[in-house]
Design a protein that fits this description.
- 19% of the residues lie in helices and 29% in strands.
- The chain is an alpha+beta fold and 264 residues long.
- A hairpin with a 5-residue loop joins β9 and β10.
């Protein structure tokens, strides 16, 4: 379980409410805000911990997405021109307004919505495992995509849909009398240009994706993975695009169903 001591009684109260509010959008946002407040409101970060030996908690296994927010943008493909909630600049709107799914399919670009900024928002399942002591492997059945999160050095130069992801365990000391706070932080760059949503809302090759992976466990033992993400892309975004997605832990691979990318 993630260490949530840095926010004291507030987070304990939120976790108790978590079981009663059935993963509402409001709770996901509050949890994300609380976790980020911990990072901003305590002392300077400790040296980052890396790899499997430095893990603050276990996020391996199978996880199924729980879509309780942005349902109409995630469960179905929104209509062309619907970029509600994404602050696009003029260039971004021009690209979004020219979306053509048939052209993506015939051009071999049907995976544009399955890159790192979009894949964690698509409904489906994740399988997370240690590929080696310094690399976490995140497989998504949506689009049969695989992300590699590197804690150490790598020869991978990025350039594909999933880009180049550098990871470390960010540790912050707790407030007086409380335990440390920690998260898995992942920064992804060098991505192939793609879509934030399946209806052509774009991000460029220069976009930077910063994610925090936090494991939260209900009093009854059910675990959830909260992924809070910020995408910065001056080429197409007027301001950073911030999201919070959550997944429920599964005991096995039930429902795991790899499917190919689709342009619509």
């Amino acid at each position: 379980m993630a260490t949530l001591g840095g926010a004291g009684n507030l987070v304990a109260c939120l976790v108790m409410r978590f079981s009663r509010w059935s993963l509402s959008l409001g709770l996901a946002a509050v949890l994300a805000s609380s976790l980020h407040a911990q990072r901003a409101g305590v002392a300077a970060p400790q040296p980052p911990r890396i790899g499997k030996s430095g893990a603050l908690y276990d996020i391996t296994g199978y996880w199924v997405s729980v879509v309780t927010e942005d349902w109409r943008h995630r469960m179905v493909t929104p209509p062309k021109g619907d970029y509600t909630g994404v602050m696009l600049n003029d260039a971004g709107r021009r690209v979004a307004d020219t979306w053509d799914p048939a052209k993506d399919e015939t051009g071999g670009q049907q995976c544009r919505a399955y890159g790192a900024p979009g894949i964690m928002r698509l409904p489906g399942r994740l399988h997370i495992a240690w590929q080696d002591d310094q690399t976490l492997k995140v497989e998504a059945d949506a689009g049969t995509q695989t992300r590699l999160l590197y804690f150490g050095t790598t020869d991978d130069q990025g350039g594909g849909w999933q880009g180049l992801s550098k990871a470390f365990w960010e540790v912050l000391p707790g407030a007086r009398g409380q335990s440390a706070v920690g998260s898995l932080k992942v920064v992804t760059t060098r991505m192939k240009p793609g879509y934030l949503r399946k209806n052509g809302v774009p991000y460029s090759a220069n976009a930077v994706l910063t994610e925090y992976f936090d494991r939260v466990t209900e009093p009854g033992g059910q675990a959830y993975l909260l992924i809070s993400a910020t995408l910065e892309d001056p080429a197409y975004l007027a301001q950073p695009f911030v999201t919070a997605s959550h997944y429920r832990h599964q005991v096995d691979a039930t429902g795991w169903n790899p499917t190919p990318c689709s342009g619509n």
